[in-house]
């Protein structure tokens, strides 16, 4: 009976919207896909395996560790010091060039925590209830699907995918399962934006016709630098890091972390922009744009990057709203008058200043109008209760709320705060922005068929061929 209710809820929602490193494996047990499902009681600890425990993976793992009903069951990474949590073994060049992105580590997990270099071995452990995936973007689809098919609940880091077709493949795998799965699009964990997501579509600032957000970081002149291929550190499994992507020699300015400036593995509209694009789509209560136009290129930063340092994308939505996202990595200063997001309506303009506050400024009358104000100015700030908590008992850090919600959903079997479908739709916006730039053309997007209607060349970029033996 419970399963039938769950399946009905799911249908209703959708209608709306290498080998293990030697000496590092502990307690792996073989289990066929979906053959095991541990029943959780209200007082049970949820055993979570962490796939990818570098910079972002460590941050989110610590958020899980703050929850009393979570137990770290296993760690997996292609870089051995991340598995052993020994920073003294990290290549000195990494610490010198990206000290903020190399986790401090040193956690005392004990011998009972599994340690894996191959995520597939982690998935064989039938005592693990759920996994968090914090690997580079090009791994998200395969690891999410494999985790679902192994009977694990999944929380996957943004962006959900590296291609549009990967997202639909993930959702199809999930539809066949009984698993809980969500995406770390953290702004949805903010009570401020949950409130605005109700009020803006209801007309709080009138009809919204324009929204603006940006990512600005002056990386001129040297960016990520220029380097030649060389051998990776001996404790870094470069072939496994590449996974489904074509083989290429290792470079120190690709991994760890700097892959975000290489189109093969990531880009900045996926890495940073997807947060704003998801928030805007959510506040507009829109499914997808109908038109996407991107201009830009590598104009100023002299480095090895394969993504633009200057880029602007214009999205047009069915409601008539125009959305602009700009990426500038050769200058500084915000494009938004206040905060990081500006949303203009006929009655007022919203300025999102952070996760816990915003301002709304009334519009002024234009030509031939006799009215003074159509709404009152408004300022909103959430009151903190201390210790990282807000007055309503939630966390000031919206990412921590995403984690808490996911753990609750593992127990209740309800839909997480950010579903795979929502993650897919927002990630598609970033993909379409990239494809428009690659083909140098405005794209017309059919969101129902998930295809571009005016450019065959662009449709070929909705997916990519996996390197053998990996397959989707």
UniProtKB/TrEMBL annotation:
Pfam families to which the protein is assigned, alphabetical: GFO_IDH_MocA, GFO_IDH_MocA_C2
All residue ranges annotated as the Gfo/Idh/MocA-like oxidoreductase N-terminal domain in the record: 46-182
Sample GO molecular function, one term: nucleotide binding
This protein's name: Gfo/Idh/MocA family oxidoreductase
SUPFAM superfamilies: Glyceraldehyde-3-phosphate dehydrogenase-like, C-terminal domain, NAD(P)-binding Rossmann-fold domains
InterPro entries in alphabetical order: Gfo/Idh/MocA-like_OxRdtase_N (IPR000683), Gfo/Idh/MocA_oxidrdct_glycsds (IPR050463), Gfo/Idh/MocA_OxRdtase_bact_C (IPR043906), NAD(P)-bd_dom_sf (IPR036291), TAT_signal (IPR006311)
Gene3D superfamilies: Dihydrodipicolinate Reductase, domain 2, NAD(P)-binding Rossmann-like Domain
Domain Gfo/Idh/MocA-like oxidoreductase bacterial type C-terminal span(s) in chain numbering: 223-293, 402-471
Organism domain of life: Bacteria
């Amino acid at each position: 009976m419970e399963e039938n209710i769950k399946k009905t809820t799911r249908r209703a929602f959708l209608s709306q919207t290498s080998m293990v490193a030697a000496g590092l494996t502990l307690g792996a047990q073989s289990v066929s896909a979906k053959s095991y499902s541990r029943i959780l009681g209200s007082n049970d600890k949820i055993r979570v395996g962490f796939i990818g425990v570098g910079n972002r993976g460590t941050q989110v793992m610590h958020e899980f560790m703050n929850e009393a009903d979570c137990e770290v069951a296993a760690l997996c990474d292609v870089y051995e010091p991340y598995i052993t949590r020994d920073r003294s073994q990290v290549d000195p060049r990494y610490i010198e060039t990206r000290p903020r992105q190399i986790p401090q580590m040193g956690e005392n997990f004990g011998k009972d925590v599994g340690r894996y270099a191959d995520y597939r071995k982690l998935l064989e452990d039938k005592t693990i209830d759920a996994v968090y995936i914090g690997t580079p973007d090009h791994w998200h689809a395969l690891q999410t699907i494999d985790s679902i098919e192994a009977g694990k609940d999944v929380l996957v880091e943004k962006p959900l995918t590296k291609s549009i077709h990967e997202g639909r493949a993930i959702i199809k795998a999930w539809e066949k399962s009984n698993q809980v799965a969500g995406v770390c699009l953290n702004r949805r964990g903010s009570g401020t934006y949950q409130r605005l997501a109700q009020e803006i579509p209801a007309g709080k600032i009138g009809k919204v016709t324009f929204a603006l957000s940006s990512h600005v970081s002056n990386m001129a002149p040297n960016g990520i630098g220029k380097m030649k291929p060389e051998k990776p550190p001996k404790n870094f499994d470069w072939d496994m890091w590449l996974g489904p992507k074509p083989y290429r020699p290792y470079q120190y300015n690709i991994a760890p972390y700097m892959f975000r400036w290489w189109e093969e593995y990531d880009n900045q509209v996926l890495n940073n922009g997807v947060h704003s694009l998801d928030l805007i789509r959510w506040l507009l209560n829109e499914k997808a744009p109908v038109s996407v136009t991107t201009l830009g290129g590598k104009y100023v930063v002299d480095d090895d990057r394969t993504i633009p340092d200057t880029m602007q994308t214009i999205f047009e939505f069915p409601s008539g709203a125009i959305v602009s996202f700009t990426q500038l990595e050769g200058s500084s200063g915000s494009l938004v008058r206040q905060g990081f997001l500006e949303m203009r309506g006929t009655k007022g303009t919203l300025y999102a200043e952070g996760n816990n506050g915003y301002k709304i400024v009334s519009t002024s009358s234009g030509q031939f109008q006799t009215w003074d104000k159509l709404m009152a100015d408004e300022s909103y700030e959430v009151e903190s209760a201390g210790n990282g908590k807000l007055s309503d008992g939630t966390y000031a850090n919206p990412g921590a709320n995403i984690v808490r919600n996911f753990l609750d959903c593992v127990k209740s079997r309800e839909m997480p705060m950010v579903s795979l479908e929502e993650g897919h739709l927002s990630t598609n916006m970033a993909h379409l922005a990239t494809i428009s730039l690659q083909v140098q053309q405005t794209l017309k997007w059919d969101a129902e068929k998930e295809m571009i209607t005016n450019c065959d060349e662009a449709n070929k970029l909705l997916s990519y061929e996996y390197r053998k033996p990996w397959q989707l």
